[in-house]
Design a protein that fits this description.
By secondary structure, the protein is of the alpha/beta class. The chain has two domains: 133 residues, Enolase-like, domain 1; 232 residues, Alpha-Beta Barrel (TIM Barrel), CATH 3.20.20. 35% of the residues lie in helices and 22% in strands. It contains 14 helices and 18 strands. It has an eight-stranded parallel β-barrel with strand order 6-7-8-9-10-11-12-13, surrounded by four helices. α1 packs antiparallel against α2, α5 packs parallel to α7 and α7 packs parallel to α8. The chain starts with 10 loop residues before the first strand and ends in a 13-residue tail after the last strand.
Length: 390
């Protein structure tokens, strides 16, 4: 049984704080979105009757789901253990669907509850969930499709200097129409990395199978660590066919919001699974994918707000990796009072209680970095009343 199952939460207050976006190190574009000149974060804060707080990154634009489904149960679970009330939270989003924002919001609230539980036990969250080490391997991520060759060189050098031995770059330039440029960019990066660093590529779903093989024929399959989301993430028949025809490990999972899809991905031939904790339907669902990877000898990695979610990878095999999308994530670190440190290709987690990231709220409030805050109090949130009308 997990430690959290017997925890009792008497929640009195919930707030969402939206922080001012920060400029990216380099404006960033991938195959299907961008360019992004800045990146931001919103944080949910859940406070219990004793004044303990749990926090986690959260979507700030779906408060209707929180107010209708999740908060009425969260605020009125007095005397119930987590094992008793979490299923109520889970099934409250049934009509919103388990493959979209509602599932992600459930997971974000769940992460904040885990943080709260670990803080009041005065334990780092990685220890609270049974992690057996305080460091996790990372892979460097970036290489936007808009990067110049010089910008690619600078980013690769940064990761090499940090002891990182794998770099993932974006391809699918010009919305997938410029395969020749993708080939040139990847070959350039492979010359830079040599034997010191593996290279993976992320297509963000834009290509057809024909374009995938045109690219692989030019690059060589043995030159890539993995091929990420090369075709549409919902085209399972095409994904299965692709996996049969290439020896390059194919990676999927970032677009999924529930663990229930991942056995099918594995059955399609996916060798690298990528559940994102801050976009996933709860901590235990992420652990289900972790266990699936262990059982079938598949590669496991996680992205998203990776400094936050690094605690989970301490419970996985040491081959598990956390993505560090430096261009977007680094700027946010000015908001962090506590965070993992990067050394010799690993995130080293702090021994502070709760999540390995803590926002410096004193700084954020003093410098007016909180651009919006919404607060819900227990007395203002009625009990759960499921909506069944269209």
């Amino acid at each position: 049984m997990n430690k959290i199952d017997q925890e009792i939460f008497n929640i009195q207050k919930v707030s969402i704080r939206v922080l001012e976006p920060v400029a990216n190190i380099t404006p960033f574009q991938d195959a299907t979105m961008g360019p992004f000149s800045s990146f931001g974060i919103s944080v949910i804060r859940i406070e219990d009757a004793e004044g303990f707080v749990g926090e986690a990154p959260v979507y700030n634009s779906y408060t209707n789901i929180l107010e209708t489904c999740i908060f009425p149960i969260l605020f009125h679970c007095e005397g119930l253990t987590y094992a008793e009330f979490f299923p109520k939270l889970y099934w409250s989003i049934r009509n919103e669907g388990f493959k979209g924002a509602a599932s992600a919001l459930l997971g974000q609230v769940d992460m904040a509850l885990y943080d709260l539980a670990a803080r009041r036990r005065n334990l780092p969250l990685y220890r609270y969930i049974g992690g057996n080490r305080n460091s996790v391997k990372i892979y460097g991520s970036g290489g936007g499709t808009n990067y110049t060759l010089q910008e690619l060189e600078k980013e690769v050098a940064l990761f090499l200097d940090a002891g990182v031995d794998c770099y993932k770059m974006k391809i699918g330039k010009d919305f997938g129409t410029n395969v020749a440029a993708d080939i040139e960019r990847v070959k350039h990066v492979r010359k830079l990395t040599g034997k010191d660093m593996r290279v993976a590529v992320d297509v963000n779903q834009i290509w057809s199978c024909g374009e995938v093989f045109r690219f692989l024929d030019a690059i060589g399959e043995d030159e890539l660590a993995w091929l990420e989301e090369p075709i549409h993430s919902a085209a399972y028949d095409q994904i299965e066919e692709l996996c049969k025809r290439t020896s390059v490990p194919v990676a999927y999972g970032e677009s999924e919001r529930t663990s229930k899809i991942f056995p099918m991905l594995a059955n399609c031939g996916i060798q690298h699974l990528q559940p994102v904790p801050t976009q996933f339907g709860g901590i235990k669902e992420w652990m289900e994918v972790r266990d699936l990877c262990a059982d079938r000898n598949l590669q496991l990695s996680s992205g998203g707000y990776s400094l936050y979610s690094s605690f989970l990878m301490t419970t996985a095999k040491e081959t598990g990796m956390i993505e560090y999308l430096y261009s977007l994530m680094y700027g946010l670190e000015k908001y962090f009072l506590i965070r993992p440190s990067l050394e010799k290709g690993h995130f080293h987690l702090p021994e502070s209680d709760g999540l390995p990231v803590r926002i410096d709220w004193e700084y954020c409030l003093k410098e007016n970095k909180v651009v919006r805050e919404q607060v819900w109090l227990k007395q203002d949130v009625p009990g759960y009343n499921p909506l069944v009308s269209m």
